[in-house]
Amino acid sequence: MTVTYEEALQKYEPVFGLETHVELGTRTKMFCGCTTVFGAEPNTQTCPVCLGLPGSLPVANRRAIEFTIRIGLALNCSIAPRCRFARKNYFYPDMPKNFQISQYDEPLCVDGFLDVLVGGETVRVGIERVHLEEDTGKSLHIGGATGRIQGAEYSLVDYNRAGIPLVEIVTKPVPGTGYLAPSVARAYVTELRDVLRSLGVSDVRMEEGSLRCDVNTSLSVRGSGVLGTRTETKNVNSLRSVERAVHSEIERQAEVLDSGGRVIQETRHFHEDSGATTSGRSKEEAQDYRYFPEPDLVPLAPPASWVAEIRSSLPELPSARRARLIQAWSLSELDFEALRNAGALDVVEDTVLAGASPADARKWWLGELARRANDAGVEVSALPITPADVARLTELVASGTLNDRLAREVIDGVLDDEGTPDEVVAKRGLAVVSDDSALLSAIDSAIAGNPDVVERIRGGKVQASGVLVGAVMKATRGKADATRVRELIMERLA
Amino acid sequence: MDTELTQTTATGLAAAIRSGEVSAVEVTQAHLDQITATDGRVRAFLHVAADAALAQAAEVDRKRGAGEPLGPLAGVPVAVKDLFTTVDMPTTCGSRILDGWHPPYESTITRRLREAGAILIGKTNMDEFAMGSSTENSAFGPSHNPWDLSRIPGGSSGGSAAAVAAYQAPLALGTDTGGSIRQPAAVCGIVGTKPTYGGSSRYGVVAFASSLDTPGPFGRTVLDTALLHEAMSGHDPMDSTSIAAPVPPVVAAARQADVAGMRVGVVTDLSGEGYQPGVMSRFTEAVELLESLGAKVTEVSCPHFKYALPAYYLIAPSECSSNLARFDGMRYGLRAGSGSAEEVMAATREAGFGAEVKRRIMLGTYALSSGYYDAYYGKAQQVRTLIIQDFEAAFGQVDVLISPATPTTAFPLGERADDPIAMYLADLCTIPSDLAGNAAISVPCGLAPENGLPVGLQVMAPPLADDRLYRVAAAAEAAFVARWGHPLLAEAKGLSA
Fold it and tell me: Rounded distance, CA B25 to CA B6, Å?
């Protein structure tokens, strides 16, 4: 029996929550001086501390603590005046010490929220806690079918990642979003990513693993008021996957419940290819992490004055920016979402700052340039054209130097590294021909070459002049101002 | 063999080398000869770095010849407990599981000693991972007490204490977690100090229990011990628990050696049942001696000290169960078994750890488990707070506290080896200072009449008041030596038999 998403939603209310791990963009690791640059040869960015060698000791990275406080403040959390690190004990080969320095019952930031926009509606997602910990090494399991340690022939471990500062952001359970639950989950991660990016605390690249999500999902029978058993889906590492994971868990759990089964509290693995989840280890036989306060580190007590200083240095956050731009550019929330989803907010704003009108800036970035970016398979902001170039382009169009067709050719030139728009116009000789005498010979040729058309125009079919205009445009290779050409033709034939 | 050189104090050796009266190479060679002559019986060392030591000594002599500045310990041999990481010597922690490990980095303290000109002569035996009071838990066999080779030298830093008592080195490094410096110092008739927690760096000291482990010095005299204490101490940015404060002026205090007007509190709770009569009689004599030197002696009660031992045996194993998790055969040291990573980890730990280490890992794992944490680890931490408060109240009334350093003198090898609880009682007097993180010293105060073995007087001071220890211990030492006519160690006959 297969339960459709719609059927599931009629009967059950989904509740979801997200645990997001973010690798902080500090220069050095959480507890030692090793560099954090991504992509180096395995095990070249290590030292006695991040390898957990006997006798080594951790020293907390002040910058990582500052970044965590920034995140906490941006998510409207309270910052604990005193908190502690704790050891999370479990054995795994990519954990150098076989414990992870994390935070347990005393996180650095607690009890905040993040407002997200879904389909023009604002949903408030509660933030339970934000805490700081160290990342583990990275295992590569060779020879198994699943890529997991079970069944592998052997495993390789890269400790370059071990000790990179990691922030875990845990939401409160989010009820009441119904049908929209998958979209809200996705919108939350999107908004969170934008917040983190605006704070400058992480490069938030999901594909490189610097932002990773675990998604908790449960279903409760509508009207029962009883929370269902939740599952925790791991490896959800793209925005689309967050949405799909919630969606597929809702369907799967509904099916289990409808067939009289019981949802098991467990870890599930998400599969990018199928969009489905499969069972991992059961939480009911879960490990006991034997948390206790980390005795190698003193308690963390950020002075109130430092927290105030960090608060005053926070940049404009995405929600404030949204409100400001909607107002300043006269946008609807859907217009705004379109801009954000296209990844074009920064470039459009910079283009407006460079002198373009908001409407023109949006038109070029969401239209022609978005198409080019899509063809090239890159973000629109990654195109080799600057907001200043685009602003200049709109100016050239507004002044009549270029028409839209020529402007597209100028874009070709700029993207081909031929220089600024002005340089491309000069090099390619693309300016609109505004000198009437230069146009008149082309007009005369067109009139001479199309006597039948001339006859029809003179007979009153003015719209037939389009054929002559087209011929002139062709002869001038598009550089003529079509309106002026039409005027001149009508004068000639009058 | 030059016994005159091996019997000279560290202070005397440093002065003689500085003045050119004797070379550092001669001093080092004399101690290497003493090790060769005696260590077959004492078994203090796990590794003797003869060539490296002589090379370091030659460098000191070269510097002196060239008129370059010399450090405070220039040319003085120091024996190092085998849990300080050293790049030129193995570090085993007395365990099979670290067999063959050569640390790629140097501990802060041994680095500082090298910079001070000290000659690191070798690595000394210890109870495995510093867990024990006799060195019988060493995977490489026990060390022997130079007073009586059939008896324990104490532990866990027993190799270091035995080396100093056997004149194999004038100074040695140890670590004190529950008494592992003071108890071996007491039973070997030498001086040993547990500095204030955080006063000496733990970076490069393989951890047993992080919140308790405190590196400290051994010497045959109070002044020698102060000399090493000062050279090894001070803030270390690599250790977050290291205190950013000046090192207390311990050498000056040892030279001052004056207790006139000091308020000395006798801890009444550290006496009674389980205390050997000869230990108590020598302790009482020491109290009278201090009074005769002008100290104002009163009795002080610390009512929660009786809970210190059980609290310690929850906190220390809890931390050790986590600290020792890294020894899994994946990256360094022993690897045993085959199959999955999990199977190799289990087989390595089964083969690599001794019985006492396993016992404490099991205890600690249990004490931290979900559902038991509050009753065990949590409760023990509350007791720890009460003990700190006992000390604070006591130090509100007196400048230092005193007690016997150990309830008994050195017991025979094997006597308590199969009785962990009896073994644990050896640290009854020393554990409270570890739990509170304050400073304490053991200084010889005579021989127990019933067996002629040395007894230690323990002096305890508030955190960062380590200098008070040395004032009291040096005053007592001077008065005792004057009374005895010679240093106590002159009566040790274990090696002359």
Answer: 13
Q: Is B81 a catalytic residue?
A: yes
Which of B84, B326, B357, B362 is best to mutate for the A interface (most A CBs within 10 A)?
A: B326
Instruction: Nearest chain B residue to A156 by CA: give it.
Output: B330
- Residue from B232, B420, B215 nearest B309 by CA: B420
Relative to beta strand A121-134, strand A138-142 is unpaired
Predicted TM-score of the model (pTM) = 0.88
How many other CB atoms are there within 10 angstroms of residue A489's CB atom?
Answer: 23
Q: Which domains does chain A have, with CATH numbers?
A: 5-310 (no CATH), 342-428 (no CATH), 436-493 (1.10.10.410)
ipTM above 0.90?
yes
Secondary structure (H, E, C), chain B: CCHHHHHCCHHHHHHHHHHCCCCHHHHHHHHHHHHHHHHHHHCCEEEECHHHHHHHHHHHHHHHHHCCCCCCCCCCEEEEECCECCCCCCCCCCCHHHCCCCCCCCCHHHHHHHHCCCEEEEEECCCHHHCCCCCCCCCCCCCCECCECCECCCCCCHHHHHHHHCCCCCEEEEEECCCCCHHHHHHHCCEEEECCCCCCCCCCECCCCCCCCEEEEEECCHHHHHHHHHHHCCCCCCCCCCCCCCCCCHHHHHHHCCCCCCEEEEECCCCCCCCCHHHHHHHHHHHHHHHHCCCEEEEECCHHHHHHHHHHHHHHHHHHHHHHHHCCCCCCCCCCCCCCHHHHHHHHHHHHCCHHHHHHHHHHHHHCCCCCCHHHHHHHHHHHHHHHHHHHHHHHHCCEEEEECCCCCCCECCCCCCCHHHHHHHHCCCHHHHHHCCEEEEEEEEECCCCCCEEEEEEEECCCCHHHHHHHHHHHHHHHHHHHCCCHHHHCCCCCC
Interface size, chain A vs chain B, as Cβ–Cβ contacts under 8 Å: 101
The Cβ of residue A40 has, within 10 Å, a number of other Cβ atoms equal to: 12
Name the CATH superfamily for B3-305+384-491. Answer: Amidase signature (AS) domain (3.90.1300.10)
Q: Which amino acid, one-letter code, is at B443?
A: V
Please confirm whether the linkage preceding B156 is cis (ω < 30° from 0).
Answer: yes
Tens of pLDDT, residue by residue, chain B (497 residues):
578 999 999 999 999 999 999 999 999 999 999 999 999 999 999 999 999 999 999 999 999 999 999 999 999 999 999 999 999 999 999 999 998 899 999 999 999 999 999 999 999 999 999 999 999 999 999 999 999 999 999 999 999 999 999 999 999 999 999 999 999 999 999 999 999 999 999 999 999 999 999 999 999 999 999 999 999 999 999 999 999 999 999 999 999 999 999 999 999 999 988 899 999 999 999 999 999 999 999 999 999 999 999 999 999 999 999 999 999 999 999 999 998 899 999 999 999 999 999 999 999 999 999 999 999 999 999 999 999 999 999 999 999 999 999 999 999 999 998 898 889 999 999 999 999 999 999 999 999 999 999 999 999 999 999 999 999 999 999 999 999 999 999 999 999 85
In this structure, the number of other CB atoms found within 10 A of the CB of residue B8 comes to 21
Q: Is the CB of B210 less than 8 angstroms away from the CB of A58?
A: no
Is B318 close to A57, i.e. CB distance below 8 A? no
Contact: A57, B202; criterion CB under 8 Å:
yes
